[in-house]
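Q: I'm teaching a short session on how sequence maps to structure, and I want students to see two examples side by side rather than one. Could you give me a first protein with its sequence written out and its structure tokens following it? Keep the formatting plain so it prints cleanly on a handout.
A: Of course. Example one:
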Amino acid sequence: MSVETGMGFDREQEELRLAVRSFLDKRSSEEEVRRLMATADGFDLRVWTDMATQLELHGLAIPEKWGGAGATRVEQGIVLEEMGRALLCGPYFSTVVLAADLLLCSGDEVAAARHLPRIASGDLVATAAVAEGRQGWDLDAVRARAERGPDGWRLTGMKTYVTDGALAELILVVCDTAEGLGLFAVDGAADGLTRTPLPTMDQTRKQARLEFTGVAATPVGAVGRMRDRIEHALLLACAALATEQAGGARRLVEASTEYAKSRVQFGRPIGAFQAVKHRLADMLMESEAARSAAYYAMFAGDEEIVWAAPLAKAYCSDAYVKVAQGAIQVFGGIGLTWEHFAHLYLKRAHSSAVLFGGAAEHRERLAAHLGL
């Protein structure tokens, strides 16, 4: 199997891509995606376990002292790009990216030692709860409250758009406290926690609304001094999501190009018509630019990530939607039917575009950072 990357990856990174793509070609086919998105949990436990044990993907970017391989974020991006290409159904992003990065960024060695080895081994499904209704992902809008009493910390409030929130065993909740913003670990089976699956347009990524009524919680990191650390973890999540978006866009370009070569109309392949050529060229340009932006963010250091992640998330969000819409036009009416795969990518493109904030929000963030 040949994999054309067009970027400066080394041999080991190319081999990682080949291994992940080969695995997903077999275990995340269109038929399997359709089967899983119709289930309550939305993932196959055997596939989840095999990814952790056979390919060791769960611990890829987790430090060795906590059971991981200690790889860089670039390797993590390669894995996510291939998962986006295959529309993998499962809590990988929620657990291995979002929750793990929050634990790593928290500075809490005890919490990291407790949870990261289980994430690396595939024994733990985790997620993070940040957004609250229309307030979105703005940390200034956090209203969920954590208060310390004689029996420890208790959480009250609501979180929504929590990816894999209905099934996660560990939930990292961003809350306001008397001291300021805090991050708290909550057991998914805790008393007072109500989890309601949300009906979403994108059925390949499960989301839930969580309601907390005096739920017992454990602080992660220093309560009241967590804002910068949480913001940094969310920036890393945006960069990671951008690579997933780039993978989905690239898959649509490939599929649309193949279809344009084989679909005959008026005695010629439709790819021979200038309008279709232009459409495919525009899609390829958007896809390649999205990959460049996404990987720039994954290569970025701690200082660069402040502006590289919003740039990547904004561009990749728009690019994925544009490419998905272009694919629908190339495929024609069949692309909008339930039986065709193109609509699955279009829905993932739209859901990913608003996850962690829309393109306009990230452009405003980038502009503010640059002083514009």
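Q: Perfect. Now a second example for contrast.
A: Example two:
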Amino acid sequence: MNLLFGKIFTIFFLICCISLQMPNAQAQKASKQEVFNSMQKVADWQIENFWEAGHGRRVHEPTNWTNGALYVGMMKWANLSDDPAYTDFLTGIGEKTEWKLGSRLGRYHADEHTVGQMYLELYRKSGEEKMLEPTQKHLDFIIYHPAQTSLHWNTPFHQDRWNWCDALFMSPPVWAKLSKITGDEKYLDFMVKEYKATTDYLFDKKESLYYRDDNYFSALDNGTKVFWSRGNGWVFAGLTNIIAELEPGTSEYKYFVKLFKKMAKRLKELQTADGYWAMSLLGAEFYPTPETSGTGFFTYGFAWGINNGILDKDDYEAVVWKGWNALQECVTEDGMLGYVQPIGAAPGQAWPDRTEVYGVGAYLCAGTEIYKMAQ
């Protein structure tokens, strides 16, 4: 009798343990209309406030990397919504900048290339050469005058190469898009060579995460290694934008997909119970404040991976919906996305009434893929 009771108790205990895990597997799912409405509200708020400072942000130059990241998400939203007003907004930016990449930090700096992602996507829609030519000439110059600098941070002209992880979102997708559009593999070859050099330098093979730059190789934060959420979000989202331009089965495709899957596996383990990723990925207990830019980019990457058959839906769908639901908690009634960590290079602080354009870009990227998943 005691043996039978023991078996029954064990089974009951196991059922309870499984039940405790069910909320993660049964994360609340939104309808397509709900996702669409949320994206529209956030996009409209951002456009309305684009030229005005406030909510913790200043007005950035149109070619600034912050805006470049916004345009990536806004371009995806423009294509999804099929409302010409959003494409017109982006085209107006291109006309204002004369379709040139940024120049404030120098010709080689990855941040100045970010806006090129929007230019090339608009070129795909219209075929107007003026949208393509300045970017192509800019990258041609770099190919024929490549930077000879070291990846070490404390060396001259070090940011002429991609020696900080943010750069892997800013510049490589531009090279991949240009290669696909023109059919010229020299752009892809250059990008892959430089990307591998950066990854060999900044990627921690044990954690499957990127250091922001070599200043963090030996740094500790509350006793944990410092892997910045948004920094890794830049990489994870950037990988999707690269892979989308590659031919399946090629060596380049296999390389980037393998890296993407490694990061996905680790990032899944690091998502917090409330759906966010902490600003310091290994130090969630020390950074309990929600943060939406890293969370937005991670959610986008996971959803894109599922939609494109790279990540298994059964393994990762709950991660996506938890991330999306967490983001929804940070959108105000009028459409402002809060809890965006300000410009920086390491874990820090975020506030409910502070936003930034790159956070909105991440949100719109995520929403575009979530819309495809929604019923």
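Q: What should students look for in example two?
A: Point them to this: The chain has 14 helices and four strands. Also worth mentioning: The chain has one domain: 44-373.
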